[in-house]
Amino acid sequence: MPQQKGLARIFQPPKSAMQSGRAKSQGWVLEYEPSEPKALDPLTGWVGSGDMLGQVRLKFESREQAVAYAEAGGIAYEIEPTPPTAAIKPKVYADNFRFGRVENWSH
Question: Among 3, 11, 16, 86, which residue has the fewest nearby CB atoms (within 10 Å)?
């Protein structure tokens, strides 16, 4: 495999703002950093770039798999540390109507 230019970053994507749990946020992603800035096309007004590696987004089940892929391909990489995650407190709808509830009614 030929040497590829550019720096890749390996990170664990955050959970979507539309989800309350951590499903589909356990994998690792390898993305290339942009090698050239985006430019405005004078004819169409669209923003574009000649950087084809900017479209590559590889997903892996573990950090070790992503690192092994990068090292096997001769890709320079940076690993972003995973941010600490708070514990998810389970909520039960029936607790809103619990006898002896101390909290104020919220809705």
Answer: 86
